[in-house]
Amino acid sequence: MPSLRDPDSRASLASRGALLVPALVDALTRVVRFGPRACCTSGGLVSLPIVAAARAARVPVYLWEGNVVPGRVNRLLAGWSQRVGATFAASVPALPRGRTRVSGDPIRASLLRWTAAEGRAALGLGPGPVVLVGGGSQGSGRINEALLGALPQILRAASVVHLAGGAHIGRAEARKASLPADLAPRYHPHAFLRDEMGAALAAADIVVGRAGASSISEALAFGKPLVLIPFGASASAHQAANARAVEEAGAAAVIREGQLDGERLAAVVVGLLNDAVRVVRMASAAKAMGRPDAAAAIAQELLALGGCA
By the 8 A CB rule, do 154 and 162 touch? Predict the structure, then answer.
């Protein structure tokens, strides 16, 4: 299914709309056959038939909204839902009053098991501050380019764990080889991390990255200050809204993508590293926003909604 957030996909909605009727019939058949006690969805157009079928069969619906700005379909589905969970308090005014709670974004338990000391040891990090830089699961060419230019300044103040992405790791490794001998050991490029992502988050003093709900929530669950660079082409500017919510809470500094370069990134990151009072204040705000128990909270809501608690 196309997304209503995506302007490029709207032209296909008329043809795809014809699929909604058979999809609804199929969904209703499956709901009746399965007999669920509750329906849980993160929304989007693809979920519309199953949620409509659930409501037709009088199955209560739990909608989880990850971003500050709900999409068109999620605003519709929220009106059909008996409970709504939100990642950010800033999205609550756009969702049904009295039925919406700030649940947070579910975080993998395997991430949360790491301590800072264990993370440092697992990633071979030396003493001193650590900056974790990522750009989503595939990496970000814009963030990588800025970081590679900023490395000499940042590495004089901290070690850097860089999640460059599979398509960009070769350039990151070449940059490491070109660094002065005293700085190269402090730069740790990786294509990506799986189980050790929790190690990197636990070890970090500052996390730099995009403003997707999951990336933000993982850092907040560890109480980490953020430097957020919202993806400029994100639909409905939802990443900018996510970043603004965290910035207004005091847990993040924001760099607009159009302003991003090595000089700007170095100035913001080194500025934070040199301002211990501000970093402590941001960490406190991040910890207050973080919801490491989000998955359990959502599970309890679902059990209660389905009459299973």
Answer: no
